[in-house]
Amino acid sequence: MKKNLLFIFLFAISTTTFSQKITLSGAVKDSLQNPLPYANVIAKPKDVSKNLQFAITDNEGYYKLLLAHGDTITISISYLGYKPIEYQFIALKAATKNFTLQQSSEQLDEVIIEMPVTVRGDTTTYKTDKFTDGSERKLKNVLKKLPGVEVDKNGGVTVQGKKVTTMLVDGKKFFGGNSKLAVDNIPANAIGNVQVIDNYNEVAFLKGLTDSDEMAMNIQLKEDKKRFVFGDVEAGKGNKEFYKTSANLFYYSPKTNVNFIGNSNNIGEKTFTFKDYMSFSGGINAIFSSNFSWKGGDFSQFMESNDVVSSKQKFGAINITKVATQKLDVSGYAIFSNSNTSSFVENVNEYTTFTEQRTNTITADNLLGIGNLNLEYTPNSLEKWHVRSQVKRTNNTNNNSLVSLINANTNTIATDRDLTATYINQNIEWHKRQNDKHTFSSVFSYVFDKNNNAAFWQTQSPILQGLIPADNSQDVLRIHQLKNNQEQNIDVVLKHFWEINNSNHIYTTVGNKFISEDFLTDDSQTLDDGSLNNFANGGFGNDLNFKLNDVFLGMHYKFRTGIFTVKQGVEVHNYNWNLANQTNLENNKWVVLPDFLADIEFNKSKKLKLNYNLKTSFSDASKFADRFYLQSYNSVFKGNETLENNLYHAARAYFSRFSLYRGIMLHANLNYNKQIKSVRSTVDFNDINQFLTVKMFNNPSEDLRGNIHLEKTIKELKYKFDVGFNNATYIQEINTTLQTNKNNGYDYEFAVETLFDNFPKIELGIRTDVGKFTSSLNTSKFVTTEPFVIIDYDFLKGFIFNFDYRQSNYQNKTLGQKNVYEIANATLSYKKENSGWSYKMTSQNIFNAQFKQSNSFTDYLISDSKTFILPRIVMISVGYNL
To answer: What keywords tag this UniProt record (predicted)?
Structure first.
């Protein structure tokens, strides 16, 4: 019944929309009848109280406008370098009208200033005041109103379906180019124009030489916001002692820019997530992207879930850029984050031969600091230097009380973990355009990565019997572990780009990568009398030094012909690795890695990319350590010093299609991976206790994944369809027996979004996820169906209402379990025009849901989880715009 009402509602909206709107369409061409892509077509109603309508021609020069029935309209057509023309139209019935523009002898600037969107080469500029109405609060609200621009819920920005990888403000990176911090915090009233730069490279003369396909967005501030401090502050108070405070302050001048972002709350809102942290890793030019794989330190404990029962978050960040001289720019940022959370999770874990019921009560205190300094020196237009320094420091503590129930036997284990990690990265880049034919790039990088882990397990019941040399006669079992890892990387890479002509290039790469890693473990037991029972005599305790040196040479040939750009080549690596543990082992190996890339550009909005690589990688030192160490309260691990490199095929096909005229955005990708030989874990079970080690396997896994995302706009309704699938097959050794496992799943989402001018923006949809895991012994299937609705409504003058609702229908088909929960949030805000004050009322978890349910698969475990969440929160906030 609910589904029928939904479709009736959508049909009613569609019918009403179609009856009220008149379509005017056609083409814009030059005097030679060549299509003019990205021309501006603006409809100005005679009634000035009505909104402008706007269209941009596609690659074939076509446009389409939806006009209110009966309106008298002035149609203005403009294009860079051509004389604008106007046309009077009365919207009584659908019509087709083609336009021919003549080249202009006027100054280009006189033409540009009247155009809402201009395209010059790879740069598209939006005049935001042509699309906004003053109700926007942040940058993300402005971007959502620009044609072809979308912002997702995680702060990611796409333009015509392509992801923005670097965010700039007045030409300078905003916190290292992070888009989320920009779209969530830059005030809307400070934004002038928005530039989108395709095929971006921060070194101008490297553009066209990289295959990274980067895109940058440059936010140009209004002139009246420069040389003044601007931004906003907000404070809110809710029920049950809930609170939130935030401050976003900015100062821009021609030579000095300062940005500050601060937030403190206990409502589970995270300004800075682990995904954001990862975007601050690395920091080299895209030209070297294939030569580096940044790990960025073992800060995994910082990646706690947002689903917690209590939370306190503190965040502060400052970004400063300074033009020191005409040739030297200095920039840097500092980030501080502290979170205190508690969580409660119930699991049903299905092992191969038994089922465990488990509860986890966890408290965590995570402290993170990041500092970055960047020097950019440009002696002339053909040479550039970058010197980058980055320091990260984290101190994380985690206290876990776990209760495990198996076959009516209960065991309670308390686990305390502490991680202190330090990460330092220093790199120096040099780029030189020698002449029209030859360009050189080089980088030197040094990384120091140190992690000190301490763990303590306490229980009154024996654990890991037969796996650890513990004295189980003690009243309380107390197990300690120290696990320290220190890694140093020194990398040097030199690239030469030989541009034979515009269509043929030869690229040469030579380099050396050196890794030295120390891995130390110590496991012991504190007895009731305070004495120490060290496990070293039982084969525990590692003290390993792992060294790996990689000398490599690569040659690639790149050519363009018609719509095709093809790059093919090979890298030859000589790996030499040494293990110093109980004995010394040294190995040497040659590996040849071919790769292929083909870009097929049918036009600027329709592209196909094909990519293949033969890839290799080495495990870290812990996998080579050949003595035992504890991984958890129920698992012991031992490495394997005979391991070699992983080798696998990786292929990808990606297709994109975008057309404003046809209202279509389509992305489709297909990924295939096949491991030729790889390191995989093996496990021996003794009830819940596990002994794990690693071995090399031939052809151990194969997986195929795909996704299609389609959006189609018809009149003032946008239809969205997304479908994805994964099909993975892999072998797993359990209790010395090889078994073949399959992990098959698919998901799809269908949604309809309204695009009316004077009507709430409503998105209605449904999402379904189906997971199926098959092992040699059994099959498990999970289905989650989630109908959802999202409403954004600007009404009266200054009021904004936001609402999101999602109902989750979860089914464990294998166990016959079902669960339904509803999550809803709402916000009502008000800001009077020309006033600095704003007011907001927020309700979070309106239905006071207690938990969320989900499932997960590992090589030998299927887990069904209930994660408990924060209660209903109602908050009133007051903000002020500076």
So the answer is: Signal
3-state secondary structure of 844: strand
- Eight-class DSSP state of 11: H
Query: How does strand 689-698 pair with strand 635-638?
Result: parallel
Q: What are phi and psi of 502, to 5 degrees?
A: -65, -20
The token pair that represents 881 in the structure block:
């715009």
- What DSSP element (H or E) covers 850? none
Residues 334 and 280: beta-carbon distance below 8 Å: no
Task: Please say if the pLDDT value at position 4 is more than 60.
Answer: no
Residue 430 Cα distances to 71, 181, 328, 331, angstroms: 60, 29, 14, 18
Instruction: Give the CA angle between residues 371, 376, 377 to the nearest 5°.
Output: 150
pLDDT digits (tens, 9 = 90+) for 179-206: 888 898 899 989 999 999 988 888 888 8
Per-residue pLDDT tens digits for 751-769 = 999 988 778 999 999 999 9
CA distance 550 to 509: 13
Is residue 14's pLDDT more than 50? no
CA distance 845 to 823: 6
What residues does 868 pair with on adjacent strands? 851
CA distance 470 to 479: 8
Instruction: Write out the DSSP string of 481-492.
Output: EEEEEEEEEEEE
CA 541/CA 479 separation, integer angstroms: 14
- The backbone torsions φ and ψ at residue 351, rounded to the nearest 5 degrees and listed phi first, read -90, -175
**What share of the chain in percent tops pLDDT 90?**
63
646 token code pair = 């992983």
Query: 638 forms bridges with which residues in the sheet?
Result: 628, 693
- Cα distance between residue 256 and residue 467, in whole Å: 61
Helix (H, G, I), strand (E, B), or coil: what is residue 498? Answer: strand
Smallest CA-to-CA distance from 429 within 414, 409, 443, 415 is with 443
Using CA atoms, how far residue 135 sits from 242, 682, 792, 802, 838, in Å, is 28, 58, 12, 13, 11
Calpha distance 28→101 (Å, rounded):
7
Q: What would the two tokens of residue 750 be?
A: 């269908």
Return d(Cα 174, Cα 191) in angstroms, integer. Answer: 14
80: nearest Cα among 113, 52, 58: 113
Residue 456: both structure tokens together: 């303590």
Q: 549: closest CA among 518, 578, 519, 513?
A: 513
Assigned token pair, 271: 């300004």
Q: What does the alpha-carbon distance between residue 766 and residue 791 come to, in Å, rounded to a whole number?
A: 15
Domains and CATH numbers, the chain: 21-229 (2.60.40.1120), 268-506+525-542 (no CATH)
| Cβ pair 159, 217 in contact under 8 A | yes
C-alpha closest to that of 784 among 855, 709, 850, 707 = 855
* Contact call for residues 337 and 272 (beta carbons, < 8 A): yes
Q: At 621, is the secondary structure helix, strand, or coil?
A: helix
* Rounded Cα–Cα distance for residues 30 and 32 (Å): 5
Tokens 């995904």 correspond to: 275
Predicted pLDDT of residue 755: 87
- Work out the mean pLDDT of the chain and round it to a whole number: 88
pLDDT for res 275:
59
Tens of pLDDT, residue by residue over 823-877, are: 999 999 999 988 999 999 999 999 999 998 887 776 667 788 899 999 999 999 9
Distance between CA 790 and CA 78 in Å, rounded? 36
pLDDT at position 244 is 97
294-345 per-position pLDDT tens digit: 555 555 444 445 689 999 999 999 999 999 999 999 999 999 999 999 999 9
pLDDT tens across 803-816, in order?
999 999 988 888 78
For residue 535, the SS3 value is helix
* DSSP-assigned beta bridge partners for residue 297: none
Q: How far apart are CA 492 and CA 511, in angstroms?
A: 5
> Contact, 261 vs 248, CB < 8 A?
yes
Give the span between the Cα atoms of 574 and 592, in whole angstroms.
Answer: 9
